Amino acid sequence: MASPSSWKLRALIKKNLLILRRNIISTLFEILFPIALILLCYGIRQAFTLKTYEFEKEEGTMEKYIQNKSAVYLTDGQPIDLFESKLWEGLSIVPSLKICSPLNSKYEPRPIIATIGIPNEIKQRIINDAGIYSSMIYFQDFDDVNQLNNYIKDKKYGKEGYPLICFGMSFKKEGQKYDYSLHYFDSIFQQGVKDVPDVMSGLFDQFKSGPDLDSYKLYQKSGYIYIMKVINEYILQLETNDPNAKINFGMVSMPYIDYRSDPFSSVIGYFIPFFIVIAYMCPLCLYVYRMVGEKENKSKEGMKIMGLSEGIYFLSYFIQYLFIALFDSIINTFFLSLLFTRIPFYYLFLVLFLWTMDVFGLIFFFQSFIDKTRVALILSLLIYFVMFFLSMACMDEAALKILKIIMSVFPPVCIMLGIVLFGKFESHFRTFHPEDYTKTYTNYSIFIMNLMQLIDFFLFLFLGYYLQNVLPHEFGIKKPWYFLCTQDYWCGNKNKKNKNNKKKEIIEEIEIIDKKLNNNNIIYPNPIKKIKKKKKMKIINQGIIDSQKIDFQLKMNKKDKSLEENNLEENNSIKNYETIDKKKTKILKEKNYIKIKLNQMMF
């Protein structure tokens, strides 16, 4: 026999399916919109082709490559040892401080160099070398590094009275020890380009493939090598007491082997997560709209009055969502496998399916504190996309691991970090193996992503359940904020529990009696026709009925009386029927008894 909960669940599922059939357009959008967005990504992928770079085709001869990818600086009007050694023959002569001239990458002159304890000899040497290319260099002295940093951070920096700084130098001598540093102030977010490469991040890049020509060009133009040469020559001249002592060096890029490049794969990790978030925006809006709409039009409250519980109500929506999400996940994983050709199918499916579960968790969370459909759609979309753009706070590969884990509490951030990691494998033509599942790359791993996706699902379900109970709504009574810490919540109400158990026991006894009567073909013509009550009957311990001063008048018609006389011997099981008009009455003392049907009595 089906339980009341099961038939309520079946009724709600039928109701949801009926809504889907009646709103065929929204149903098609719910099912097909995520598939269409992922399919669009695959279409964009077809516009890009894989490129193969061969050294001879790209660079020509080795002599030509060395000339184009080398740097020798002019000093005192002459290339370094150009006429004394053939070592520098064929190398390119570049301006010593191109970074400070209008020829730099930012196309803006920054002729001022910040100095901290720099000797005048070094300053004069830099001015002379810069004059070879008709470049004017000026110096601005600072007391220490903190003063220099405060100058750069000032809101007036770059405006009148606070000119731009090209870079900074600090020099300190203590006895026979020399200490000097170079300070660059470029910001990729403020200026758009870098003055010097980020050496530490590139040094430990596990996905690096192909030559790093960009970093070489930055070193070539930044003056980094030139300033090191000037300061080291000054130290050498002091230690040797030789004003003509020099350190001669240049910079040449290393040749590279043939390599491949996929322009689309280099951005696929950042491109695909955005489309995934957009794709599942449609199911999120539709389910939030339906759930909040049923609260707004009072249909949910009507169902709860008729005995519907919150758990059965949301379970019906989850079952409907689960089947649609499973279908979309399989189809979308197929298209994603065409984009991420080096990621196994089951890893992509696991990521995408857990993402759909996170979306349902967000749906349950959003509907818990909103009672109006229009407000629900606006707020849910706003919070949804704010969560996605929070990923910018931890997208840097050098960001702390703990920061990425904390930010993964937001499902859009979690999917962004994971897909970016998949994009690393794809763009560098590296196959994803099972051991890579738990291995940390760029302070993150696919295992952490899946774990956080699972945590996010239950976390937002819990938050939705909590807010559903503690926030005031148009209908129902809110619970105190500490209701999860009460004994009644975990152990239940004992009085209510005992009352329900007693009722259940009496109903079971009545069902057993009815079954015995039916098996023995005993006709029981309802002898109770009239009940005169002076006080209400109450159920007390162990099924005893308190019938204080209750009179029973049993009236039978002639047919019933004759039936009783003719079948007296057959009805031996009906016996010991007692009615006591005083304090307490115990009904049916023997094993084969019949209890008066409680549903025919008025308590």
**Count of extended strands:** 15
- The count of domains is 3
Summed over residues and divided by their number, the pLDDT gives a mean of: 77
> Over the alpha carbons, how many angstroms does the gyration radius reach?
42 Å
Ranges with pLDDT <50 over ≥5 residues? 79-85, 188-192, 521-603
Structural class: alpha+beta
Helix tally?
21
Q: Termini, distance in Å?
A: 28 Å
Describe the model.
The chain is of the alpha+beta class. The chain has helices at 4-22, 24-45, 55-59, 62-68, 120-131, 145-153, 199-203, 213-222, 224-240, 265-279, 281-296, 299-305, 310-339, 345-368, 373-389, 401-407, 411-427, 446-470, 487-491, 494-519, 558-566; strands spanning 51-53, 70-75, 78-79, 93-94, 112-116, 138-141, 165-174, 177-183, 251-252, 259-261, 530-532, 538-539, 545-546, 551-553, 584-585. The protein has 21 helices and 15 strands. The strands form five sheets. Strands 2, 3, 4 and 9 form a four-stranded mixed sheet that branches. Helix 2 (24-45) runs antiparallel to helix 11, helix 11 (281-296) runs parallel beside helix 14 and helix 15 (373-389) crosses helix 17 (411-427).
